[in-house]
Design brief:
The complex is a heterodimer of chains A (196) and B (113). With 196 residues, chain A is mostly beta strands. Chain A has one domain: Lipocalin, CATH 2.40.128.630. Chain B has 113 residues and is mostly beta strands. Chain B is 0% helix and 46% strand. Chain B contains no helices and nine strands. In chain B, β6 and β7 form a beta hairpin. Chain B starts with a strand and ends with a strand. Classes of the chains: A mainly beta (196), B mainly beta (113). β8 of chain A pairs antiparallel with β9 of chain B, so a sheet runs across the interface.
Chain lengths: 196, 113
């Protein structure tokens, strides 16, 4: 769950549903708390969909998380970024990235800076980082990086490593997370990218 | 502003909001609200706080039972200087059938405008 505010809007990225868990985005009036709009996915499972991060720039809200990848099998999840008009809640673009391999692909954080949306998370192979940069207005993929630490998932096949947080400043993108090294231990990792 | 969750011995969670003076670390105000009627669990989130001007917005999740399904989002707005609650809002997601959405088929990356 995450929350951000800009101008007259409060935008919440969450998980919700009457019985199932959905990628849920809600907007409230910052002055009154009045509910404004909502968007959610519903793809029929109780654990494959969640919105976890949000950022705003130029009247657009960018929300990151994951959603069940329906063409996949075995509860395959796709890395998901959605862009909304903050006034109306209209979906402007989205990117679902399931990875070329069967994957529990999740976006864990998103930041927008000077017209670029950077979303980070984990993808395939297991333990790999994924960093994807989009044009904020059109959603075009500008660049991406898939970084696989040498140790994979280490001794725990269920361990989920990858990029966990992102920040942008001065034309650079800073991504932090963890990965298994050659010795089987988890390293704390920071990687810096040129935003362009 | 720091937001988190406390849990008692019975497993009941509570949203915790604490405001510190940045320069000294002195606790300025705090809030640990009970969940709304009908709910027993109220959790915070590490990214569940935002500031804008003199306001602090906090998002939490309420549930009817520990670990229960059907999480519901709740948002509270405070005056940052004194912790006075301005508003609290909870909106139940609309019926599932009305929001059914299928993702595009069979592409590695699907962009939609």
């Amino acid at each position: 769950m995450a929350i951000t505010a800009a101008r007259k809007h409060v935008i919440v990225a969450a998980v919700g549903g009457a019985a199932l868990d959905d990628f849920l985005v809600q907007s409230y009036d910052a002055a009154t708390g009045h509910f404004l709009w909502e968007d959610r996915t519903f793809v029929s499972t109780a654990f494959d969909n969640e919105a976890v991060a949000v950022d705003i720039e130029a009247r657009r809200a960018f929300v990151a998380g994951w959603v069940l990848w329906l063409p996949g099998t075995s509860n395959q999840e796709a890395f998901l970024v959605r862009a909304y008009d903050t006034d109306s809640g209209i979906l402007r673009w989205e990117d679902q990235f399931p990875s070329p391999q069967i994957c529990i692909c999740n976006a864990h954080d998103v930041v927008v800076d000077h017209g670029r949306v950077i979303a980070v998370g984990h993808a395939a192979p297991p333990g790999a980082w994924i960093v994807r940069a989009h044009d904020a207005k059109r959603g075009d993929l500008l660049w991406s990086d898939n970084f696989a630490p040498v140790g994979g998932t280490g001794s725990n096949a269920f361990a989920i490593q990858g990029a966990r947080a992102v920040a942008a400043d001065g034309g650079r993108v800073f991504v932090v997370g963890s990965g298994i090294n050659a010795g089987g231990n988890a390293d704390f990792i920071v990687r810096t990218y040129d935003a362009k | 502003m720091v937001v988190g969750t406390t849990t008692d011995i019975a497993g009941n969670s509570r949203l915790a909001v604490r405001a510190y003076v940045a320069k000294t670390g002195v606790l300025g105000w705090q809030d640990q609200p009970a969940p709304p009627p009908g709910y027993t669990q109220f959790s915070g989130a590490s990214r569940g706080v935002a500031t804008q001007g003199q306001r602090v917005f906090v998002a939490g999740t309420v549930r009817t039972a520990p670990g229960g399904i059907g999480p519901t989002c709740l948002v509270r707005s405070y005056v940052s200087g004194n912790g006075r609650l301005e508003w609290e809002s909870i909106h139940l997601p609309r019926p599932l059938v009305a929001s059914w959405r299928l993702p595009p088929l069979a592409s590695t990356s699907s962009l939609r405008r």
